Amino acid sequence: MATDTGSRPCCSSHTSEDNNTNGVTIAPNGNHEGFTAVQTRQNPHPHVSRNPYGHNAGVTDFLSNVSRFKIIESTLREGEQFANAFFDTEKKIEIAKALDDFGVDYIELTSPCASEQSRKDCEAICKLGLKAKVLPLSFLRQYGFTSVETGVDGVDVVIGTSSYLREHSHGKDMTYIKNTAIEVINFVKSKGIEVRFSSEDSFRSDLVDLLSIYSAVDQVGVNRVGIADTVGCASPRQVYELVRVLRGVVKCDIEIHLHNDTGCAIANAYCALEGGATHIDTSVLGIGERNGITPLGGLMARMIAADRDYVLSKYKLEKIKDIEDLVAEAVQVNIPFNNPITGFCAFTHKAGIHAKAILNNPSTYEIINPADFGMTRYVHFASRLTGWNAIKSRAQQLNLDMTDAQYKECTAKIKALADIRPIAVDDADSIIRAYHRNIKLGENKPLLELTEEQTAEFAAKEKELAENGVEVSA
Question: What keywords does the record list, in alphabetical order (predicted)?
Fold first, then answer.
């Protein structure tokens, strides 16, 4: 059972026969067997309540950028490093246009030095006239020099600064890194475009080395400095503290790139903003090297819970599902069932207590309004966990009126069947209809066609539930 998600129409949700009978729901969330999408205006979702413990608690943190951040979308750079990824030029253009329409501030591309096709793709995307700025990734020196020739709006310069990478990757010392970074930054700036310098493996780099090089590039006018948790080792507290320290050293913007190896990418991104970061790197579905980086959709979920008005003013959130479907198909993966916002179960409520509260006021068990993302809310009533309020709501959708006592008795019968075997919406609806018919006609016909063994088991279960006083009041 799906309920309307707010003041706006519920996007493309429907069932068979004008929502009054059984059917498989087709909605942005996917097909929900055992659920029925029915439009109703009975439970609008009020604005999300402020978190009394969050940054809106009444004391404003002047360094926090939770309400003024920008997104550098890296699906076409970091995402190309995902194991399954292969984007031809046509697909890259389609993804770039979709991200631009969504409202991302920057689109990061694979270095044009990676291959001849990468260079051609970079040039093609630069000619699209997107609102978002286009930035290729470049590894210092010749890569930075070559990138500016493709028509980009800026260059993202990066080099490893940890002892691991200096010893086992490029073999350069910090003096070389600093001098070369300044050389490339001055060159890129001379072309009238913006430039970012980022360390790689920042959280395993020496802090003095980091602050020294960040200070040096800030003094020559770099637009942004970047912090990269390249191996996903950082905790939210570590991210906050490093960003906070860096904020006191540089005047320029601060970008952060966070891998998800330990599952902290979204939390780390949020803490980075609280510490003073201004730009967050994302990719659609979080795809990237290994298990990827901060996912665009997941970050939007986190940020809309923090500042709904700001997020709604900047981004077309209803586009998230289409973008994720586009990328998921391109890299041949399924969207996880528990994916923030777009997962199959993201806005599904099953327990009776939850269902009752959701039907009264969705804010009771939802911090995010699914309507903001063009998604649909579902209340599951065909299970042993259902409560009589959910059954009452479903019966009313079927135009079947009963007393509260009768709804409760009907609920007990549905729970009894669900204790015997899994039940679908058809089973629950059949019980509701048959029970209502028996009441109106004064009959006592079987509620379902069951085998003799099932009938005996069903009767025994009804008796057991009655004797044990099973709660159906939720």
Answer: Amino-acid biosynthesis, Lysine biosynthesis, Magnesium, Manganese, Metal-binding, Transferase
